[in-house]
Every structure is written in C-alpha cells, then in structure tokens.
Amino acid sequence: MNYQTAPLTDTVELELDGPWTAYWLAVLRLVTGWWFFHAGVTKLIEDGLAFTYGPAYLKGMTGTVLGPIPVWMGNNLAWLIQPGVPLGETFIGLALMAGVLTRLAAAGGVFFMTLFWIGNAEFGHGLVNADLMGLLLFATVLVVGAGRYYGLDGVIEGTKLVKRHPKLRYILG
To answer: How many domains does the chain have?
Structure first.
C-alpha cells in the first residue's frame, strides 16, 4: 500500500498479491465456509431434507414489508425450501472451505444472505445486523476471488481446460 499519497486522492492501491493478504483471504473463506457448512449440516442432522422451519417462518411473515410474497412462498414452495436451505448451505460451505468454484458458491451465499437479511427483518439497530454482515462476507469472497488463495481454484485455473476457456475463471476464484 502506498503511504506517500495524500489521504483523499482519487487513487487507491490495495496489494492483493502480498502474503498476509493471501493468508487473510484464505482464513476469511474458510471461516465463512465453515459457518455455512455447519448451519447446513446441523439442519440435515436434525431434520434431514424436511427443514419445516423455513416454510413455517415464511407463512408467519404476514405483517412484514414484503407483504404476501413470503406467505405465498411458504405455502407453495415448501417442497423447494425444505431440502434447498440445508443442502444449499452445506454445499456452499463445502465449496468455500475447499476453495473450489468459490465465486459461484459465494454468489449462492450472497443470494441466501440477501433473503435472510430481508426475511428476518430485525432492524431494531438499523439496517446493519448479523445477516448483512454475512452478506458482506460472501460478497468479499466473491469479489476478491478468495479461492485462488490456498484453494483448489488456484490449481484448477492452471489446467488446460481453463486456459482454453478463460471465461471459466468467472465462476472460479
């Protein structure tokens, strides 16, 4: 990082190729992955593929800012939500911990956390709550391509397949 520039200039330098940054991004990816993996596996152990709390929670959201949408989802999409939440959390967590398809997994995490943030809607302390912080963790992992740092994505990017099809790098990282 350049400390020679004035504090409020239009250029910002962030060295993502330094060793401490690589270690930190790997730790951030692993911790975020473990968090989601643990949440998913716990639901699978307790409820299997019948996570009934999700649809039941949605059915009770009658007085929220989202109106009848979550109630409709709870009534009509329970078949998708019950297995989808625990499986999604588990697979997203596994992918992040292994550092494989990291950007795709982090995008899934952003999707889940956006739904949780809006759905939980406990904004007693304002818009910043634990769900928003989880959303920001996933967004950070996605943006910086944290799977390249001590993850399998770094190995996969060196394969002939990815070199022949460089657009695959958009889901790796």
So the answer is: 1
Residue 163 lies in a domain: yes
How far is 135 from 107, CA to CA, in rounded Å?
Answer: 10
Query: Which pTM does this prediction carry?
Result: 0.83
Give 171: exposed, middle or buried? Use CB within 10 Å, 0-12, 13-18, 19+.
middle
84-113 burial, b for 16+ CB within 10 Å, e for fewer? bbbebbbbbbbbbbbbbbbbbbbbbbbebb
Inside any domain, residue 74: yes
108 falls within a domain:
yes
CB contact at 8 A, 149 and 25: yes
Q: Is residue 9 part of a domain?
A: no
Residue whose pair of structure tokens reads 């109630």 in the numeric block: 71
User: Per residue of the chain (173 residues), what is the pLDDT tens digit?
Assistant: 444 555 555 665 666 677 788 899 999 999 999 999 999 999 999 999 888 888 888 888 777 767 788 889 889 999 999 999 999 999 999 999 999 999 999 999 999 998 888 777 666 777 888 889 999 999 999 999 899 999 999 899 989 999 999 888 888 87
Segments forming the whole domain that contains residue 142 = 19-170
**Whole-number Å distance between alpha carbons of 84 and 40:** 10
